[in-house]
Amino acid sequence: MKKIFDEKYESDGITSRNVWVSELPLLKKIEYGKIVDLNDPEKQDSILSVIKEVLAEEDSADEYNFYFYSNQTTKDALDENIRPSLMVQISEGRVFSHVNMSDYDFATNLQNLLDASMNLEEKIEEIL
Q1: For residue 117, what pLDDT band results from cuts at 50, 70 and 90?
Q2: Fewer CB atoms near the end CB (10 Å): N or C, the chain?
C-alpha cells in the first residue's frame, strides 16, 4: 500500500483530515470473476495499520476520512473497468464505512461485504 495524499480541509468550523491510499489488494478471484474480499486478516491489518498511524499523530482534526483504492480492477456488465475502493470516516467517535464495488460484487457478495464492513468498523472503534 502507498499513501498518495494526506490533506486537511476546514468547512463550517469542522476540520477533516483526508488520507488516500492506493495499491490495496482488495480483490479475490473466484470461479466466475473477482470479488472484494474484506475478510482477509492481512488486508484488515493493513487497513487498521494505516488508520492507527494517522490517529496516533497529533493534529486537530475533528473527523478523519480514509480512501483505500484497490490495486486491481474488475469489469461490470457493460465491460467497463471498475476499481473497488473502501472509504472509512471517523467522526464524533463513530465509524462509517462504504465499499464501491462492481455489479457482480453487488449480486454475489453484498451480504458478505456488509458483514465484513461492520466487523472492520468494530475493529476501528476498538482503537479509538
Answers
A1: very high
A2: C
